[in-house]
């Protein structure tokens, strides 16, 4: 029931002065009842009832209805208000009021709190002292118009790292006298900012504008405050920023938040010269046999090293890659005579490798222990572990019998054995359909042999310089090749594709030649550590029409610098801001992986299920097919605050659980087509390569993918190869995926444990 609230006050009643009355015939006049609502500064509503007098007389009272459900301490002026019944009030004048025909009543009611809803049809009846009706009718009350802050923030130049003018706008929700406007600035913003019609001060990430003189503003008015000369941080995103306006006593006239998109386009990269190919050395061919011809040769399963032979024997080569005519030195620590056998990795009827070269009974020594140390030019402790001081064990000539490809050099003394990896390039100038890159810089980042890796010992103890002058401790000396990359080689060669190979070191040295070497490049599962030349070469290749399928995640995530033209070591800045300063994104959002490849690293996962959808990537697979454990290793997704290429499309998606905290996060496999026509795919999981051979890292949820999962991933990779190459690569439509007849042991894979920071 409407609570009875009676208060005496005065009423604004149009006086009976002749200048205020319109005299007309009563039978021709209408009551013309109007009811309006206005907001009061205390949050209540004032209703004003107006009606035309139809019969002259002296007013006894006026009875009117109010919206049902109204509350409040209701008062008026020039009279008293009482409750007749729920929702009906009576006003009695405090002195005699005589009205003429045509006069206009105007009765305000203060202090109401209206219910939700409306409009309402309300009655108005004025009765004279004789009991005669002086006027009567109904009017419609529209709901009180309310306003939301509707904060909008725009930038004249919304590019992180650049100078811009910001404009903050908001709607006044409560009338009052404006004394100040407080505006949240983008994080990290600096600059000698200016404005108009007032003064600006900044403190703790906010700018406060004060008008030159107090300004009366009505509810619904639109405030607009410019802040000119803002220097934006190099980090942007979709920012949520606050804005409020208040009186001198602190009463809020409006308060809310708005979004501001500051998205950095891809960073400009230096041009990488496309140097010509070197003269083909004497005795080396001008062209090489096809993949099919090579894989028709007899293979061997002897390349596999059983875990029973893991031990102190270790070896490394003095080159990461070579070409026909080169000589590569091998350094071994054993103390016993060893056999050295070079195996070219491929398909070879499922055996996975072919013996190309060997030398037995090679004498060795027990080499001195690796040393850890070194200081940078600016006095930083590099903590580099090196075995460069080891003596040479053997020189290996790379001649015409070494068909370009990926090689594992197996070194064994009969008790212990280890690999030393080598990639043999095709430097003839032949352009191949497909190139597969090997992530040698990433292998080295995780290499703990003899001391420290980039990660070993934590942020304070890991290396700031890594060298290839030592064996790998992962994968029995193969780095991460056997864990993540052999599957791509095995699959491509089993299909007879026109494929060639190189390494991260070659991308840095010969990156300008990439368009002349291949129409499409496959990046492997974990290709994280990129120099500026590597990144620039890949970006330039895309702009020149080279297709890129990143069959991995966390790619081009950390920035390295090779120490010299020999590329035997690389530096990484872990001193400025720890792990953050090692990231490409630390250079600014323009340098994130997403502006280059389409998606960005989020966190490591042990293995979650992918469920197939209906995109072209899943052609040949029923929608809803599950691939357990495929979302694994590390994963990427499309960050809303980073640059998205026009036409960026998500062709596969799923959810992974972060290894660091267990939280679910999205995984997005993306594609886009560059202005050059180059096609770019970001796979966003490590698992493509290892699923192709049914052998994944032992610490993953699914270390041994079943045949049906291998078949499903084989179908996906075939679809990717054909889409990414725009049909240039035609994958034979086998009914089954080739199975490996022999397999090396499974290995635990080291990955990052920290989650990518939000900026």
Question: Could you describe the 3D structure shown?
Answer:
The chain is mainly beta. Strands 1, 4, 5, 6, 7, 9 and 10 form a seven-stranded antiparallel beta sheet that branches.
List the keywords.
elongated, mainly beta, seven-stranded antiparallel β-sheet, 759 residues
Largest sheet entry? 7 strands, antiparallel
Percent range for β-strand residues: 35-45%
Report the count of strand segments.
43
The percent range for helix content is 10-25%
Q: Structural class, from secondary structure content?
A: mainly beta
Shape: elongated
How many helical elements? 10
Mean pLDDT: 93
* Separation, N- and C-terminal Cα atoms: 55 Å
Would you identify the regions where 5 or more consecutive residues have pLDDT less than 50? 1-29
Counting copies of identical and different chains, the oligomeric state is: single chain
Radius of gyration: 39 Å
Question: What is the secondary structure topology, with strand pairs?
Answer:
Layout: E1 7-9, E2 34-39, E3 45-52, E4 57-65, E5 79-85, E6 88-93, E7 98-99, E8 104-112, E9 120-128, E10 133-141, E11 152-155, E12 163-171, E13 176-178, E14 180-184, E15 198-203, E16 206-211, E17 215-217, E18 222-231, E19 237-246, E20 252-262, H1 291-295, E21 314-317, E22 321-323, E23 327-333, E24 338-345, E25 353-362, E26 371-375, E27 381-386, E28 394-397, E29 405-412, E30 417-425, E31 432-438, H2 440-445, H3 458-461, E32 465-467, H4 481-494, E33 499-503, H5 504-510, H6 514-517, E34 518-523, E35 529-531, H7 532-543, E36 547-550, E37 558-562, E38 569-571, H8 594-597, E39 600-611, E40 626-637, E41 649-657, E42 664-673, E43 679-682, H9 688-692, H10 707-724
Helix pairs in contact: 5-7
